[in-house]
């Protein structure tokens, strides 16, 4: 497995469980990833969410994508550090791809729409066959 496999798996299973820290308290929530490519995993959120404060205070995150099957399924776990993208053109693309965000009053020019990506980190796949084996770490980014 390599990073291309991670990109494909994430795009085919875009609902991720994203873990952050809130002080000493771990927090996890389901999120719909925007997309993944060779430059990283892209997400968007809004400033009214606790998530923004959490990843501003501590940008280290972990997220997991899951694909069910007849047994226990396959999971892709990714760790890395958040990079914020404060780019109006990127925000316009998010709004074009996800028009429901405008219903919340989010605009490309406003500060409320937050786009972030994870460009550097480690990933590994888990399934029943690999359950007791050492993790095969896939490093990505710089």
TrEMBL record:
**Which InterPro entries does this entry report, sorted A to Z?**
Pyridox_Oxase_N, Split_barrel_FMN-bd
Task: Offer one Pfam family short name for this entry.
Answer: PNPOx_N
Q: Where is the signal peptide?
A: none
Q: Which SUPFAM superfamilies match?
A: FMN-binding split barrel
Which Gene3D superfamilies does this chain map to?
Answer: Electron Transport, Fmn-binding Protein, Chain A
Report the protein name in the record: Pyridoxamine 5'-phosphate oxidase
**Highest taxon of the source?**
Archaea
The species is Methanobacterium subterraneum
- The Pyridoxamine 5'-phosphate oxidase N-terminal domain sits at 8-126
